[in-house]
Amino acid sequence: MGDKTWQNKYYEGSGSCLNLLFNFMKLTLDNLFKTLSLNSPEIPFEVEFWDGTKERYGSGIKKFKLVLKNKEVIKRILGAGSIGFGEEFMKGNVLIKGDIQEFLKMANSKIVALLKISLKTKLKIFLNYIFSLGYLSQSKKNISYHYDLSNDFYSLWLDDTLTYSCAYFRKEDDSLNQAQLQKYDYICKKLQLKKGENLIDVGCGWGGMMFYALQNYGVRCEGYTLSKKQYDYVDNNIKKRNLSHLLKVYLKDYREIHGKFDKFVSIGMFEHIGKKFYPIFFDIVKKSLKPKGIGLIQTIGSSKDKPTDPWITKYIFPGGLIPALQVVIKIMNQKNLVFFDIEDLRMHYAKTLDKWIENLEGNIDKIKSVMIKSLNSVEKTEQFIRMWQLYLNGSSVSFKNGNNRLYQITFSNGLKNQLPLTRNYIYGV
Question: CB-based burial of residue 50 (10 Å sphere; 0-12 exposed, 13-18 middle, 19+ buried)?
Answer without folding.
Answer: middle
